[in-house]
Every structure is written in structure tokens, then in C-alpha cells.
Known about the structure:
- It is built from 13 helices and 22 strands.
- It is of the alpha+beta class.
- Strands 15-16-17-18-19-20-21-22 form an 8-stranded antiparallel β-barrel.
- A hairpin with a 3-residue loop joins β7 and β8 (262-265).
Amino acid sequence: MGKSRLGPGEFVIHALRALARVSLARALAAPLALFPCLALTPARAAAQRPDISHVIDAYIEPYVKSNNFSGQLLVLRGNTVLYQRELGWADRDAKVPMTRDTQLHIASISMQFTAAAIMRLVDQRTLSLDTRVSDVVQGVRGGELITIRNLLEQRSGLSDINARADYAEILQQHQTPATLVAVISGDSLLFPPGSRYLHEEHSAYNLLALIIEKKTGLPFARAMQRLVFQPAGLRHTVADDDGDTPSPKVAARGYEPQGVYGLIAATPIHWSAKSGNASVRSTASDEARWVQQLFHGHFLSDASRSAIVDSSGVPAGYGWFRRSNKRFDERSYSMSGRSPGFASYVMYLPREDVTVVALSNIYSSATADIGNDIAAIALGLPYAPIALDARPLPPEMLALDGARFTFPSDFYQPNATVALTQSGGEMFVAWPSGDRTPIVPLDGDHAIDRAYWEPISIVRDSAGRATAMTYDRFRGERATVNEADSPRPR
Length: 490
């Protein structure tokens, strides 16, 4: 990954997007024919609110046309479907359409189900939240200090397997929870368990998967079926353990950005290497059903359910971010996910009883912005439609090929110096890690990093020379500025 090995987390609407506004009238006029595979049955159409369906259709169109979204969208209020669409292709080469039952990898949202399996074992009195790791799994350094609660809240202090230099090689081999835990079991703890939070602590959920195996006597995938998927009625949800190669009619193929507008098939991985933290395939319908089960059902005991949905506790845990959301003026529950070829987002607003699910088989973090904006549309709140130009940005518009900007210590890659590079008439962010992420143009001074869906702005002096660059909320200063620098073309 480019800017960080950490997952993208939650995203909020960016002020930059106001620069990309299009009029609602123009958006509403967009023809539905632009969407492949958009037809609805009369029964499905009748279940949706026509006053927002056309608005959301128009909103999502630029993302679909620019190859930044393909997948499933679902909005529920209570048990009522406000909006549901399947967009794009499960397999682009074979022209297999995306359907309601197409399974997509949901990446970090998988942690919700691993946590639910653990809480089912707690309800069965097989475990408690205060059980020590060393009571179940031997050989984990510091295991006598780490509790099940620490693992669920990503506060264990375990080193993160995803941060290893050889992680790409780990993904290319079949794994089990035991082999994944063995990779990090001898590492020293990064901090005392429970003392701090390490975002996207993948190793913690690998270890939870192993604990589930130890306590059930079943392989992780089968244990998940027995503990969670079958009793919750999730008919199209599985933990991928490399046991089969599903057809495109069952599971979507993943894609990743190529340049500013293109797509290529994502490099295949062994999904068993993400057991516990990101191996689940599901559908928007199943994920929405799960949200309803968790917040309104009786799938878990009151005590276990409260541990997951407790808004007064730590802000992250059990596969959810539990935070005050200024945009919606209430506490929200959400989770983002990205894994090779896929991106996902789910949000639940308890006061409004609104669930939004956005699952995509394109590796782009646009799903978080999409999910938040669609929730705003459903609730009649302000949102900013985005205009994505279908043409590559002319290189001379930025005139910054090779320009370098140095960011502060709290940046995604601390103290990183990134460069804007031009290749084939397109612009990219070149990261110290060696990765390059494509820039989607908005105008001569504003763009979006396509891979992470973060806003970029160029700051210029009175002569039009670039002096700084903002990326998300961070400001990077120009590494070298001299009289030879080209000002922005007028």
C-alpha cells in the first residue's frame, strides 16, 4: 500500500469536494442507461422511495463511469429498503453482471463476524472477555498478559503481521490461523496490553481466529458457519479459506486502479492469509441483515450485545468504530475495509435507524465517501456531488512533474517526502515506499488520490509557483523552490 500499511478507517466529507459540485438538476437528468445491470424487478422498485432513488442514481453515476465503483449499494431505514442497486460487473472480461447475490470480499468488516463468533463462545461460557491468551494458545510472547477483550478492542500490543516486509509473500501461500500466529508469536509486545489502540491490528484477529478453532475443534471457516453465518441467516456469507474457486456468478473478481481511469485484475492472493481479519465474502443484503440482528435481534445475549454496541466504551472494537459523527449529529457505528481488489463500507445510525452498505470490487476507498453521502441523501441532509472529468488532466496544467513535498511527523508515512510524477499524460503521487498512486483531476490545483480517495490541493504564491501541497488534512512544504519552477499556466 502507498501512504500507509494501515487501513483507511473512517472518512468524512472533505471541503475540497465543494469545488467539484454539479447542480442537482443536471444530476437528476442523467440517464439510467449509463449504468450496466441496473434493471429492477417491479417488486424491488416498489419497495424503494422514488424520491431518493433517482437522486442516488445520479450521485453514483460519476463513480461508476470513472471506474471508481462497481458493486452493491443498500440503504435501510428500520426494515424498509430505501435504496438498493447492483452496479457494474462481477467479472468484466466475461461480462458477468453484478447481482444481489454476488459475494464480494468485505475486508476489515470481516472482523465484525470474528468478534460475533467470540461473543457466542462467551455466551456459551466457553470463554470470557477476561480469559488470557495463554489459557487457550501456547507460545505467544506476552500471552499471559493479553485478554480476549484486548484482542477484540485491538489493544493487545501484538506486532502487526500486515506491517512485515515479507507480508506480500505470506499472501501468496495457503495459511491457517496457526501459521499466521506463528509468524508474530515470538515478537516482543509493542506496548502493555490494554494501554493503547493500534488501528487495524490484524494479528489480534488472526489470533482470535485461532482461539475460535481451539474452542470449537473446527477449522475457522466451518466454525464461522456454525457459530455465526447459519444461525444469523446469512445465506451468502462465507469465510474464504482457499477451499474452492467460486465462479464469477457466485463471487466477484477483484480489480485495482490502473492509472487515472483504467482497471486491471487484482493480483490473486490466498484469502486464508487474512483469516479472522479480512477473509469473509458477503453481500450488501447479508451485511444489512447482520446489522439488524446485532442492534435489534436476539442473536447474542444482552451482555454480549452491549459489549459490542456500548457507545460509552472505547471508540473502536469488535469490528466497529463507535464515534460521535458531527455530520449526522449523533453517534454512528461504522467500518471501512480494503483488501486486494475490493473495498467496503458499512454505517449504522441508531437514532435514525438507518443502515448503509457499500461493497465494491474495485480497490478504492471511495466507498466511505459514497456511504456517508448516500446516508445524507436518504436523510435529506446536504451533500456534494462530485464531477469527475472523463479526460486525463493535461500535464501542463499542473506543471509539477518531479515536484517534491515534505510532510510532518504525524503524516501517514512520518516525515515523508512525496513527489508528483508525470507518466503517459497522467499524474501520480510517488511515495517513499516506492508505490505510486494515480491522481484524479478536478481542476488545475485540485485532485483526488484515486487509491485512497484523499483530496489534494496545490498552494501557490502570487506568481503562481507551487509552494505547498495539502493531502487530506496534512500540509507538505515544497522541498525545493527556485526561479526555474514553472508557474501555473494561465
